[in-house]
Design a protein that fits this description.
The complex is a heterotrimer of chains A (about 350), B (about 525) and C (about 80). Helices cover about 75% and strands about 0% of the residues of chain A. Chain A is built from 15 helices and two strands. Chain A is globular, with a radius of gyration of 20 Å. Chain C has one domain (about 1-75). Classes of the chains: A mainly alpha (about 350), B alpha+beta (about 525), C mainly alpha (about 80).
Chain lengths: ~350, ~525, ~80
């Protein structure tokens, strides 16, 4: 496409929803419930609140520089070497997190549905499809994810609704069995994943074609809140169905899909839902790959954006297959390392840049 | 049929004012010159006449008898008869001077006549079916249009049958087809542009649109691509489709074709451009969007509830035709728990002792089916029914008994094949035949995941495809309000007629700036 | 190991194919970066095929951040 592509407000809001909900809907329940047990839903809501703070800063910077992405306004505001440092560290963590997400998806597939195949095939296919999608541009991505998001929400809703007969609300009590510390711990983890991703979305915001009277920011906050509520509801549903056994499940929402039973015909339909959940991860990976592409090409002023998609995709693929030697390392990377990495290499630079822009005005 | 490209010929047939190409006053020279051009063309007839009172004035009538059939009248006589009531008294007293004066001053003639004076015009007109009359002593010639070749009569096209509705179909003559369309759309906003394309074929091509309804940038894009086609010989409207397409290698057709004038008229009213070529009945409707390929002409002639349900049936049929074999392979090999237990037992029972895995079996059965489809196109009528019975027996019964296929697989393949015929546009059905096989391969290697990857890739391709610059997947790609009304349900006419002011899908896409 | 080699070869073939698609406007800086990325991928492919656990991105990021992260983790789980 020769012209600069733009997407309209509705598409941007839906893109953000897909970005935030995409891979978290599968991955969030296991770790959170493992850490905070019955209080996990409180943690997610708290983390959501902190995510709103991040969003506030991001949207504030967007108002200041509507046509510049994070990397671009960093280069404008800060001293050149510092900008490069911030940019490269951001690129490193985004690449690591994308590899993390991909590995998580591979893990999901091999533990639940397709047990015999080696992991790297799944990683390869999903990253290849994601790279092809990124090459087509943000407009095509927005159009595709529009329909896929509706499909994803429909699937999530079905899982939640069709399990009504299995809910035992009494499992929710007691809420704060071990006190506040586990809840805060889970909130701490929640800042790293998923809510720091809001900051990476700052790379996509400049593509918005601003229409005068449409309220944009409040819909973004609404979307964030909606995401928090959905995740909290899925956590509550998992706890209500499985009770204390839930800590043994690695992917509770998948197990929820597994126990759906309507009459004789609709039973063991988890494969269908599993595929739908993978589509969410695909959307997230595609957008992360797009963000990586944007960061690298804008940071180093490279002219041909499309050409770099495949090498970067290849890089992410190789990281996803080599960085983590086994599941435990993956878990550690997500639970222990991710938050501090995201905060120090992502959030703190954002604060510095925002502060600098406040001072400059 | 090959389309040969010709570079512009370098000899002087294109130059207009060389004295060599002027007709001369002497009839002999003219005759020799025409015979030199048309050596070995034995269907060009030269008739010499003598007229005037002493039969001493000469005239020559030349025409090509293969394209001027049924022409019994002697046009020279008509020329004479033209003059008599107005100018001269007796037929035997006609002089050359009077003839010249009459025609140069454009006297009233009984038939339309062109006065030409160049040699290449003469050869051009001869090949277009004109009768050329030349006189001794005059360096101009008269050309009368007398084109008459056997034509098919107007009847219902075989591939687009409608239960209710007109039974007229287009035929091979451009003028008559345009007439069928104009007589249904008596608006002065219907603009028709006619051109000639191709060095050797010089086929007449035309395109038409309804001004004010067609979106301006679509029209501009169409005209740009239309004018770029200069060197190709156009034999059929599908040549246009291929030369003007956005994506030649896509399995999905980007233009619709039809042989019914009422479909063409309703497309014009919907803001589309139609293209026709002389010599073929196919009308090309551009641009063609994904959702329009599911609409059939009889949708609008039948009641809304029924046609909405039938349309949903067609959409389901397309999805089945595309993915049923792959779903079956994925389910029976990888995700057996999804199949209800009783059915699963039946399938496993019949799959006992099958020599091939499900993928190979499916490929073999599909291959037989495709072969049968292709062969039945060329069957001579007497043995047609016998061969189709044999085909059914081979594919169905015999392969089961021989152990090549399981009954379930035969059912799946048969259902797939039937579903692929439920799509109104033949070209669109071919897309599902092409895409079936990669989906099957994906499903056989990685089960549901491979199937999902295949669907995502197809979806990606559909979203990025454009037809004449318009997004192909338009009301589904960026989901718009019109999705239910245009795609799944056939909305009642009262809602439709309000939209005829402006084309709905296309203009909305343009308004929002191409999103 | 053989499958890993096959997958790696397929990947590089795809990369070459896309390089040909985008060949037109490659100025020098782009080319350097492209080759830089390919070199890093080369090292990682070697790690991938051999299946060993060599130095990698998460190890790189572990260097500054592992100890504080573990301290925080221990604080919460104590």
């Amino acid at each position: 496409m020769k012209q600069i592509e733009t997407i309209n407000t509705l598409q941007m809001i839906l893109l953000f929803q897909a970005f935030i909900t995409g891979s978290t809907i599968i991955n969030i329940q296991g770790p959170f419930i493992g850490i905070a047990e019955n209080g996990a839903w409180i943690s997610i809501l708290l983390a959501n609140g902190l995510g709103a703070v991040v969003m506030m800063i991001v949207l504030f910077m967007y108002e200041r520089y509507p046509t510049l992405s994070y990397v671009q306004y960093t280069k404008v505001l800060m001293w050149k070497p510092i900008a490069y440092l911030f940019g490269i560290s951001l690129a490193l963590i985004v690449i690591l997190f994308t590899a993390n997400i991909t590995y998580g998806m591979g893990q999901f597939l091999t533990t639940s549905m397709l047990k015999e195949s080696p992991l790297y095939i799944f990683h390869f296919l999903i990253i290849m499809v994601a790279s092809l999608t990124v090459r087509q541009g943000i407009e095509v991505m927005a159009r595709m994810f529009h329909g896929m998001l509706y499909f994803l929400f429909f699937i999530i809703l079905s899982i939640l609704v069709l399990n009504i007969t299995h809910y035992h609300p009494e499992y929710l009590q007691p809420v704060l069995l071990s006190g506040w510390k586990p809840v805060l711990h889970a909130t701490y983890v929640g800042i790293g994943f998923p809510y720091m991703d809001i900051m990476y979305f700052a790379m996509i915001l400049p593509y918005l074609k601003r229409e005068k009277d449409k309220p944009f920011k409040r819909w973004m906050y609404a979307g964030l809140l909606l995401n928090g509520i959905i995740l909290a509801v899925t956590i509550i549903a998992s706890i209500m169905v499985f009770g204390p056994m839930v800590t043994y499940e690695k992917f509770p929402i998948f197990q929820l899909a597994r126990i759906i039973e309507i009459g004789e015909i609709i039973q063991r339909v988890e494969s269908v839902f599993g595929i739908a959940l993978i589509i969410g991860t695909y959307m997230k990976i595609t957008m992360m790959l797009f963000i990586i592409n944007e960061i690298i090409t804008q940071l180093f002023d490279l002219s041909n954006k499309r050409a770099f998609v495949f090498p970067l995709g290849l890089l992410v693929y190789l990281f996803s297959t080599t960085s983590f030697n086994n599941e435990i390392e993956l878990g550690e990377s997500g639970l222990i390392m991710e938050t501090i990495l995201a905060v120090s290499l992502g959030f703190i630079p954002l604060l510095i840049v925002a502060g600098r822009s406040l001072v400059k005005r | 049929m090959k389309v040969r490209r010709h570079r512009r010929s370098e000899n002087n047939q294109q130059e207009d004012s060389s004295p060599k190409t002027q007709l001369s006053r002497k009839l002999e020279d003219n005759e020799t010159a025409i015979k030199a051009i048309f050596t070995d063309c034995e269907d060009i007839i030269y008739n010499k006449f003598q007229y005037s009172s002493q039969y001493n004035e000469k005239a020559l009538v030349v025409f090509c008898e293969t394209i001027v059939q049924n022409e019994k009248a002697n046009l020279l006589k008509e020329v004479m008869q033209d003059l008599i009531p107005h100018e001269v008294g007796n037929a035997t007293e006609v002089e050359l001077k009077e003839i010249k004066e009459f025609f140069i001053e454009h006297g009233v003639t009984s038939r339309a006549v062109n006065v030409i004076d160049k040699l290449e015009q003469v050869s051009e007109k001869l090949l277009e079916g004109f009768i050329v009359v030349m006189f001794e002593g005059w360096n101009k010639a008269l050309a009368y249009d007398a084109f008459a070749v056997e034509k098919r009569s107007v009847g219902e096209p075989q591939n687009e049958v409608s239960v209710i509705g007109p039974r007229e179909g287009t035929i091979e003559n451009l003028t008559k087809n345009l007439g069928l369309i104009r007589s249904r759309l008596k608006s002065d906003k219907l603009k028709v542009k006619i051109q000639k394309k191709g060095e050797q074929t010089k086929s007449k091509v035309a395109y038409a649109y309804l001004e004010g309804t067609v979106p301006a940038d679509t029209l501009k894009e169409f005209e740009k691509r239309f004018d770029e086609i200069n060197d190709e010989e156009i034999l059929e409207t599908s040549y246009f489709a291929e030369l003007m397409e956005d994506s030649t290698y896509s399995p999905f057709p980007q233009f619709k074709t039809t042989e019914r004038p009422d479909v063409a008229v309703s497309a014009l009213l919907g803001g589309k451009i139609i293209a026709l070529v002389d010599g073929t009945p196919t009308v090309l409707i551009c641009p063609g969007l994904f959702v329009e390929f599911f609409q059939s002409p009889s949708d609008y002639y039948q009641r809304t509830l029924f046609s909405s349900l039938i349309r949903m049936l067609r959409i389901t049929g397309y999805i089945i035709s595309l993915s049923l074999p792959s779903i079956y392979i994925a389910l029976s090999t990888f995700h057996t728990e999804l199949i209800p237990s009783v059915l699963l037992l039946a399938i496993l029972d019949t799959r006992e002792g099958m020599p091939f895995p499900a993928l190979v079996e499916a490929l073999i059965m599909l291959f037989f089916f495709e072969l049968l489809q292709e062969a039945s196109l060329r069957l001579p009528r007497p043995i047609g029914s016998a061969v189709s019975i044999v085909g059914a027996l081979v594919i169905g019964d015999a392969s089961i008994n021989a152990g090549i296929a399981s009954p379930m697989m035969v059912v799946v393949v048969a259902l797939t094949g039937i579903a692929s015929f439920s799509i109104p546009q033949y070209e669109f059905g071919t897309s599902s035949r092409i895409l079936r096989v990669p989906l099957m391969l994906g499903a056989a290697t990685l089960g549901g995941f491979g199937l999902m990857i295949g669907f995502i890739l197809i979806y990606l391709h559909l979203i990025s495809l454009r037809s004449l610059g318009q997004p192909y997947f338009a009301p589904l790609g960026p989901i718009r309000n019109g999705i239910l009304y245009d795609f799944i349900f056939r909305s009642p006419l009262s809602k439709q007629l309000r939209k005829h002011k402006q084309s709905n899908v296309l203009s909305k896409a343009n308004e929002k700036g191409g999103s | 190991m053989i499958e890993r080699i096959i997958v790696t070869v397929v990947m590089y073939l795809l990369l070459v194919y896309t390089w040909f698609l985008d060949k037109e406007k490659k100025n020098r800086k782009d080319f350097m970066f492209y080759m830089g990325l390919v070199c890093i991928s080369g090292y990682l492919s070697f790690v991938f095929i051999s299946g060993k656990a060599m130095f990698n991105l998460d190890d790189l990021l572990d260097i500054p951040f592992e100890r504080p992260a573990r301290m925080i983790f221990n604080y919460f789980t104590s």
